[in-house]
Design a protein that fits this description.
Length: 71
């Protein structure tokens, strides 16, 4: 079950093990904190397209580059 803030952005979802979602002022997801202490961070280009994803666990960081771009 998802929890939403006053402007309709999802802030957590127990069913998906998401403890917290942090949003940027432009409405893009900045960070997802999972209940297992995994953190997922995102980078965007100047047009707002997601370009990198970082998955951080206790012992490693995985960088996923070249995310699909919307043309």
């Amino acid at each position: 079950m998802g929890i939403y803030d006053a402007i309709g952005q999802l802030t957590s979802d127990v069913d998906e093990s998401i403890g917290k979602i942090e949003w940027r002022v432009d409405g893009k997801v900045d960070r997802i904190l999972k209940t297992d202490d995994t953190a997922i961070d995102f980078d965007y280009d100047g047009l707002g397209n997601r370009i990198n994803e970082y998955v951080e666990t206790e012992d490693k960081t995985l960088i996923i580059s070249g995310m699909p771009r919307v043309m």
